[in-house]
Amino acid sequence: MQMDKVQRILADLQSTASTVDGRATLPEALCATCATSLQVTGVGLALMSERGPEGLVAATDGLAKTMEDLQFDLGEGPCVDASAAMRPVLQPDLRKTASARWPAFGPAVLEAGIEAIFAFPLQVGAIRLGVLDLYRDVPGPLSSETFRDALSFSDAATRLLLYLQEQMNNQGELHPDLLLAHHNRPEVHQATGMIAVQAAVGLAEALLVLRARAYSDGRSIVDVARDVVSGNLRFEPDGKDS
């Protein structure tokens, strides 16, 4: 039954993309359909890896983008936990749980106006592909039926990511519909590599260093990354910066 639902979602995407916006990508169409069908305020779709968030693929609105940006910048949140645990993370009332569970992300997402988040991992076996994040601007749980439908949309999103990448015929490049994730954070990836060399640490630790500096300065990770790339900020092997 769920597979039939997934097939219907995928079959309707092309027409939805042309209806929503003449330039809408298939991931954008899926997010728009998901938000409407499940009656949530907004939806975001992000690529994930073992390192954590890799970038935004699609979002229904500015607040959904903010939700994904915060998780990327801070390296914590429902999206990160859902991907790491490979199971949904359901937070129907963020005011009761978010600040204790995610000290940086919790206050920031509440200040933005998001009251509930439901994160569904996109995976094939042990391979992490992404996360489908649903949010509401009012607290409240998903009904049993809505939860089942959300699982269908997450299955559809997984199949869509695989389908799009298969179209590239193993060229080693991202499909154009996924390029937003790549172009969204080029400075961060470049800065991470530079910090790894400067501080003589691995890439994962370098990204943590970058996030920690951004958090302590109260700036976005992109702004700090640009300082690293421009040479205005360097990190030494002893952990100090200059």
Automatic annotation (TrEMBL):
It comes from Allobranchiibius huperziae. GO terms for molecular function: RNA binding. Keywords: Transcription, Transcription regulation. It holds the Pfam family ANTAR. This is ANTAR domain-containing protein. It comes from the Bacteria. Residues 174-229 form the ANTAR domain.
